[in-house]
Amino acid sequence: MSGGWNTIESDAGVFTFLLDNLGVEDVQFEELIALDADYLRQLSPVYGVIFLFKYPTGEKANSDGTPKDGQYDYAAAENLFFAAQTIQNACGTQALLSVLLNKDGEINVGSQLRDFKEFTSGFPAEFRGEALSNSELIRDVHNSFAKSSPFVDETQRTATDDDDVYHFIAYTPINGILYELDGLQPAPIAHGASTFEEFPEKVIPVLQRRIERYPANEIRFNLLAMVRDLRVRAREIGDHEMLFREEQKRREWQFENALRRHNFVGFAGEILKGVIAEKLKEGPDAYKLWIEDAKKKTKLRAEEHKKKQGGDEDVEMAA
Amino acid sequence: MSAPPIITFKAGRCDVDQSNRPWKITPDPTPGYIYMYSEDDMTHFCWRERSKPMNDEENLDLIMFPSDAHFEPYEYKTSNQPTSKTNGRIFVLKFSSSSSRHFFWMQSKPQARNGDPSWFSPRDLKIGQIVDTLLQGEAVNVSEEIAQVRGGGNGGNDDEDETMEDVEGHGDSSEHHRGGSGGAGPDATGGDVREEGAGAREGGADGGRAAGSGPTDAATVVQNFLNSLKGGQGIPTQQMQQGGQIFTTLPNLLPSSTTIPIIDSASPAQLNNLLSYLPPSILLISQSSSTSTERMTEPNAASASATIEALSSDEKKAILKRVLRSPQFHQSLGSLTMAIRDGGLPSIADALGVKVQNGGLVRGGSVPLGGGEAVEAFVEGVKKSVEEK
Known about the structure:
Chain A: Its EC number is 3.4.19.12. By secondary structure, chain A is an alpha+beta fold.
């Protein structure tokens, strides 16, 4: 039985350094806040787009076995890297690798991932998925970005249809066709022809149709573009400001990732001590007031939460 | 078999037809008991007909390897087969080492007010949890545990027609193991989850001082504690409900509006102290104006303290404030609160060197405090530490 996979955030900084730690060179992620082909083109070269969405219940498949959009391309599953998803919590990394391992001509994926691709090249999709969930290297790097704390052991959780499940899907052009790679589908889904250059324009309408499948007020989604390291372009065109901005962004990402890995028990204890010491200095009433204020906040939030659960509130769409 | 049983309760076996999915589970009406005992440090899971004695050769007697098996309520909602003929409270015994499964049904009187025969009462769930915990190789003070679901603040479900005779807890399951502090009083080591955590700490440094290494001990302690709880899906929710009042949470006590002013008024020594609890790499990241952003590994303690010294007071404050405002810090306060509410108080207080009332246990018992009371006890404990300085 393979070891556990923790959940990781769908965040450009997390994904960028995840690939970095796997030995991939010159790749980063950028969040797309709007479905704008022009904006996406500015980030060229674009290797693929990862679409993350959170939807309350599983979608029912078409009764005739066709996908809701596009066509299943079973033959393609042999010629490109496509893995069945075996573990819920691994799906983000799996989506990343779906794009990456199909671009190893254009990207230097590093020796470890190249070995992994070769190792699985003869396998059918389910076995590739198994190989991925069993890969200690990939799992360890993935888990090193796991959501903050050591307190919540999420490795035991399995997804059911009723869960509020996050799902990641990758879109990428391979051999002149725009593919949707979803580990929960039986095969890659083809969405028509697309060259590498056309990809930014071609993928936007496909994404739009996907989003429209869900009631607008019920879906939360996130789009991350996998692109070449923007500092490379900045250096190429001699844009120092852009280079500076990108370096700044990288430092922020590193800061956040360091905090994500960090166990805050000790720090939290010291901060609590510091606050209590201050309150006691101010006087006995200050301490009591501080506790009462906090209790009020907690009560208020509990009441709001109860209201939400009872009614049929609209869930706001994340930008 | 000479050892007395640790727990006994009325239960029947079920036959399972695995030829088709969903499996057809048919209860066997024969009245019986599930019981468990420990011999030569091995836990036994057993079933017998009520008419048979305990050492009858025909009894089911399974030797259990710790953490190989789980005993859980069987959720039949996912299949279309309603249970028929039984009272519907089915538990499954399942193994990591094989795919075999044993199904049992509870034969005590069902307690649902609406007559739903498949409803698991808190007592039913507690019995399941006790069995599951014993299967992981851990000690349980059965009478304490059962007492918690009897007449304790569980709302209106106490119209038990059934007397407690159907569940017998035969005292402290760990009597033969721990010499320890002896006696069966409130300080009894039996069923003391806290001990698990303390053991894990022995090898490490004392809690929490050296940059980067101290807090890791605390995390190990807490993680070991949580691992010991693994098994019954219902456990965390149950403990939280038993807490009664909510009190408050660490995120509500420590919003940035409260914590930022502390930084402003902190002395240089206090700033350095706080920084020592943060990952050293962030000091380098904040400081570096170079364009080299190669993969950051954590610097060693010597270069970390050198870096701290090189920072100006303003720079130190800026870093601390940035951390206090970060979503990562706030998420961890939330998780820490949950861990305390779910019975982690003894381990966490211990790891932080904070004394809490009664060692973080329920008064008069050996079970960790839970829910809002635990959070309150934690804050009070920290307050005492501050006052005593």
